[in-house]
Amino acid sequence: MTKEKFKEVIKKIAIAYPRHSIATDKETLDVWYKCLEYMDDMHVDETVIRAIQKCEFPPVIADLCKEYNEIEAAYKSKMHEIHMNFDVGSGGFPYGDDYKKTQQEAYQVFLDLTVGLAEDDIDKAVYYSAQLRSKSRRDFDAMESDPDIRKNFPTYTQYLQKLKDGLKHEP
User: Fold this and answer.
1) CA angle (68, 109, 74) in 5-degree steps
2) Chain-centre distance of CA 85, in angstroms?
3) In the 3-class helix/strand/coil scheme, how is 12-46 assigned residue by residue?
4) Between vectors from CA 80 to CA 64 and to CA 157, what angle results, nearest 5°?
């Protein structure tokens, strides 16, 4: 978490609990920041909102860490599901053209194209990636019997780009 984002967190907590004094001395803030700095800015706002909604009193470091870890675990699970829908070489996405990339290279392509997806897009991405996986399997089966289809079969990178494009165009 950036220091700027950390200041926003403290401010939100102070606003949400106006009847409680929130310690703002340097030593206390340094401890809080040291304990929370591992958090990715992408999930911090949701973390604070959830903690505020659940806690009758101002949240402590452990409350924020618990909320963040739950949010992060759910996010990673969904991202893993998306990746598994395009898992090169394990039956998820067929080989061919640039499918000969190593698992690590394929995973890097996946990360490059999906990094920064908005949280609202994650559920759509899971759904859309499953749809593309299904289509790729049908295409791959057809390709087995018709060599002309093989020539026009999209690459792994093109399929991942379709995923991102689909997210941009869906309501």
Assistant:
1) 20
2) 15
3) HHHHHCCCCCCCCCHHHHHHHHHHHCCCCHHHHHH
4) 130
Q: What is the pLDDT of residues 2-58, one digit of tens each?
A: 999 999 999 999 999 999 988 889 999 999 999 999 998 888 999 999 999 999 999
pTM over 0.85: no
In degrees rounded to 5, what are phi and psi of residue 88?
A: -65, 130
How is the chain split among helix, strand and coil, in percent rounded to 5?
Answer: 75, 0, 25
pLDDT: is 89 or 136 the higher one?
136
- 11 phi, psi to nearest 5 deg: -65, -45
Residue 115's pLDDT band, with cuts at 50, 70 and 90, is low
pLDDT of 78: 80
Cβ 160 vs Cβ 85: under 8 Å: no
Question: Which residues have CB under 8 Å from 54's CB, separation 6+?
Answer: 63, 67
What 3-state DSSP class applies to 101? coil
Q: Which position has the token pair 């997806």?
A: 117
